[in-house]
Design a protein that fits this description.
heterodimer, A: 423 residues, alpha/beta, Fumarate Reductase Iron-sulfur Protein, Chain B, domain 2, FAD/NAD(P)-binding domain, 3 domains, 5-stranded parallel β-sheet, 16 helices, 16% strand, globular, B: alpha/beta
Chain lengths: 423, 418
């Protein structure tokens, strides 16, 4: 994980930036941060200006500085590559946003009140980004968040050594400071109904996704079997996972699986292994994440499926696995079963969708994924959707930075609607 | 191995690299270290009959884009140590390194008696030459010395003549750049009998203002005074003045080049523009005396690669190419050419040309959304700006497009009846 840059490194790196015109890095950023501008402002000692450039374009700028796959985005597009190392844009962005967090000043102000009310479901990156921009446009925003803290996966779901919860909460506080009412501990559909929210002038659904589905194998209800998101949340918020043991098996090949595995290593588990049903090349985790996991000591087994969880006195004691077709079809090969001893099994095989919630708002969806147009408009006249709840399959979409951008887009469309523009 | 030895108006040194009169040549200890490192000569920090009093602080650096000390300025005065101690140390250094040049920089009050006295006292020790400090722009100039002398051609000529009346070794006159046309004082030095000139001394400057405290930089208890500006940033100014003197027929005496020289190639440039040798200060203040090892090696390789047997073969070779604007060929035409294979698409050339030059680079977009930069040769005026801002070596080159067969200058145009 990238450490904050030392002051000398900041000076060298910021001044190494060529200050391109119409820079490729800027085009590669989903939120279109004017990267040469913020780097130039760092180089000239205007940290407030640098932070403002970042946060203006991306309300999740502090989180994204830490979690963006920069190799595939801004840094991958840096004109220095491949002849020379790319500018470490992510770390410079972290330097500027860290400065802002320490400084504590408020960069933005709420717009002149329009008298319009907007409800947002979920205080994750998409919901907060939409709220931030709507508040700057003068709309009165209320966010309904089922968890105790705002920030969504940034707060609870990303391992602490990549993104500390206090950074995510700070970003939410910046939104709150614009007058946005973030009602935590309020679950839409339980504590408040969709019908009540539809009384607002507009609704933005940014509810994300649900729990990790069950593996559907025997022994799954044993103590020591975890939903990866609950597992990471426990590690992050409590600093520990009860009954972790000496051997952890993580099922899955995505970034959440990597997070569950690496956080286990950081919690001191000697043996952590990831089991993926297809070949390594099909794993959806970023290459740099896989490399990071390897350096942390995580082992990988591919073309293998969990078959049965072995238990002793109601607790996980082992895992029976079955090998799959080497051609990568994930078809199990009968007779290849084998068992390993383990104390904890973590499933990280995707997330369930909030189909019923979308139904309650009258929003069309495909298997729980809200159908939206380019402006994040759903079929329901006053309802918009942004973030994980509208992303199609594909790891590259489900990035914090994409969620932030969709939130911004939703805010623009809501504003158009509320100002009487064409829908 | 080329012959690096030089002879400036009779002052010989094994290589052309001298340390200029400045803080690095303040003491025998430093000069011994410099000679040990390989410097061909030193001009001792300026001597006077009586030591002066200095202030703290004294220096400030010019930083740019994270790089430190692209230039510096200083408000330190001439030597603050007694003359007899300086002379004793000069004798010790000369005895230890007899093949190196030791030149004494001198400054005193504007009377014949005082100058005669100072020269005679200095000549009690073995010394290879004198350099008259008519250039120091700060402090001493307020007492009628330094650049106060160097800005008045009559005083330059008069004092040079006084010194020559008693000097038994070559006399170099060091010129100040704080003047409208340096040739006037160069000519005055020549008329006064100077054996050589050295230039430039430092340029009047105020390094900066501290935006937190609002104190000038450097400050002495909250106040500052203008100082002498030197280092790589002054090199173009120095080179211009050296070239002006070198191409002036009424200044036929040799030149010791000074001003921002930090490496061997800087030295080559000064020698091509007419310097017999070069003096260095700021680079040594930043990186220490060891830089002379690289200067010697680089210069030697350069000469060997070009088949030149002696460094003296460089001296003045570019001087005839440094002319009045009126003598430039108006028929010469070049245009920029962008190597698409080397281009990294930073668009720096495009924005520079678009905003600040002649709007003659086109951004082309292909079917796949890829962009390419292409020079509109019809409108390109060949100004060089795009190639200057391009970060990639040899990506933008300037290509000659005229026939190369005709020459037509403004002077010729004026002389032809219409």
């Amino acid at each position: 994980m990238a450490e904050p840059l030392a002051p000398l490194d900041v000076t060298v790196e910021a001044n190494r930036c060529l200050n391109c015109y119409d820079a490729p890095c800027m085009h590669a950023c989903p939120t279109s941060i004017d990267i040469p501008k913020f780097i130039r402002r760092i180089a000239t000692g205007d940290l407030a200006g640098a932070a403002k450039t970042i946060m203006d374009a991306n309300p999740m700028g502090a989180s994204c500085a830490r979690v963006c796959p920069t190799d595939e985005l801004c840094e991958g597009a840096c004109v220095y590559t491949p002849d020379a190392p790319a500018i470490r844009i992510g770390q410079l962005q972290q330097h500027a946003t860290d400065w802002l967090i320490r400084d504590g000043r408020q960069l933005f102000t709420a717009g002149t009140p329009t008298g319009k009310r907007v409800a947002i479901v979920g205080a994750g990156p998409a919901g907060l980004s939409a709220a931030r921009d709507l508040a700057r446009l003068g709309h009165a925003v209320t966010i309904f968040e089922r968890d105790d803290l705002p920030g969504g996966l940034n707060t609870y779901g990303i391992v602490p050594f990549r993104l500390p919860a206090d950074v995510a909460v700070w970003e939410a506080d910046q939104v709150r400071a614009l007058g946005v009412d973030i009602r935590t501990g309020v679950s839409v559909g339980v504590d408040v109904t969709a019908a009540e929210l539809l009384e607002y002038d507009a609704v933005v659904i940014a509810c994300g996704m649900g729990t990790v589905p069950a593996l559907g194998i025997p022994g799954e209800d044993a103590e020591g079997v975890w939903d990866a998101l609950d597992f990471i949340r426990s590690a992050k918020m409590d600093g520990t996972v009860p009954g972790l043991g000496q051997t952890v098996a993580v099922i899955g090949g995505g970034n959440t699986a990597i997070d569950a595995a690496t956080v286990s290593k950081r919690l001191g588990v000697p043996s952590v292994t990831m089991y993926y049903r297809r070949g390594a090349e099909r794993m959806t985790a970023y290459g740099f994440e896989i490399e990071f996991a390897k350096t942390e000591g995580v082992e990988f087994r591919t073309n293998v499926l969990p078959h049965r969880i072995l238990t002793t006195d109601g607790r996980v004691s082992g895992l029976e696995l079955i090998k799959t077709d080497p051609a990568g079809t994930a078809r199990p090969l009968v007779g290849t079963e084998y068992t390993i001893p383990c104390d904890t099994v973590v499933r990280a095989i995707g997330q369930t969708k909030f189909s019923k919630l979308l139904d309650a708002f009258g929003v069309s969806h495909e298997n729980g994924i809200a159908v939206v147009d380019a402006g994040m408009r759903t079929n329901a006249p006053t309802v918009f959707a942004a973030g994980d709840c509208m992303f199609r399959a594909g790891a590259s979409d489900a990035m914090v930075v994409e969620a932030a951008e969709r939130g911004k887009t939703a805010a623009r469309s809501v504003d158009e609607l509320l100002r009487g523009g064409a829908r | 191995m080329a012959d690096l030895s030089t002879n400036l108006a009779g002052i010989k040194s094994p290589n052309p690299f001298w340390l200029a009169s400045a803080p690095p040549t303040n003491s025998g200890y430093q000069v011994m270290r410099a000679f040990k490192a390989g410097w061909g000569g030193v001009v001792w920090k300026t001597l006077c009959q009586e030591p002066i009093v200095n202030v703290t602080s004294r220096f400030a650096g010019l930083n740019l884009n994270g790089r430190k000390m692209l230039a510096m300025n200083n408000i330190e005065l001439i030597t603050d140590r007694p003359l007899d101690i300086n002379l004793q140390e000069i004798a010790e250094c000369k005895a230890a390194y007899p093949d190196r040049a030791i030149v004494a920089s001198l400054m005193t009050d504007c009377t014949q008696a005082r100058w005669h006295d100072l020269v005679r006292k200095c000549q009690t020790v073995p010394i290879d030459g004198f350099e008259l400090n008519f250039g120091c722009p700060h402090g001493m100039s307020e007492r009628g010395m330094g650049s106060a002398v160097g800005q008045d051609p009559e005083l330059v000529e008069q004092i040079t003549r006084w010194v020559k009346e008693v000097a038994t070794v070559p006399v170099i006159v060091k010129l100040t750049p704080n003047i409208t046309d340096v040739r006037w004082t160069a000519r005055a030095a020549t008329r006064g009998g100077a054996d050589a000139i050295s230039l430039i001394n430092t340029i009047n400057s105020l390094m900066g203002v501290d935006i937190d405290t609002w104190n000038p930089i450097p400050h002495v208890d909250g106040k500052s005074s203008h100082g002498g500006f030197c280092g790589p940033a002054v090199k173009p100014i120095a080179l211009n003045m050296v070239g002006d003197c070198a191409r002036d027929a009424t200044v036929p005496i040799p030149i010791s080049g000074i001003g921002g020289i930090a490496n061997w190639s800087d030295a080559v440039e000064f020698m091509l523009m007419g310097s017999t040798n070069v003096q260095v200060c700021t680079a040594a203040m930043r990186d220490g005396f060891r830089i002379v090892e690289d200067m010697i090696d680089g210069l030697n390789t350069y000469l060997d690669d070009r088949g030149l047997a002696s460094v003296s073969e460089l001296v003045g070779k570019s001087v005839t190419r440094f002319v009045d604007w009126n003598d430039l060929n108006l028929d010469y035409k070049i245009v920029a050419s962008i190597d698409q294979d080397k281009c990294i698409n930073c668009n720096k050339c495009w924005i520079a040309c678009e905003d600040a030059a002649h709007q003659c680079i086109d951004r082309l977009v292909d079917e796949r959304g890829g962009t390419a930069l292409k020079v509109d040769e019809e409108h390109c005026v060949g100004c060089n700006l795009c190639s200057m801002v391009c970060p990639v070596e040899d990506c933008i080159t300037m290509v000659r497009v005229d026939s190369g067969e005709t020459t037509h200058t403004w002077r010729e145009r004026l002389s032809v009846p219409s």
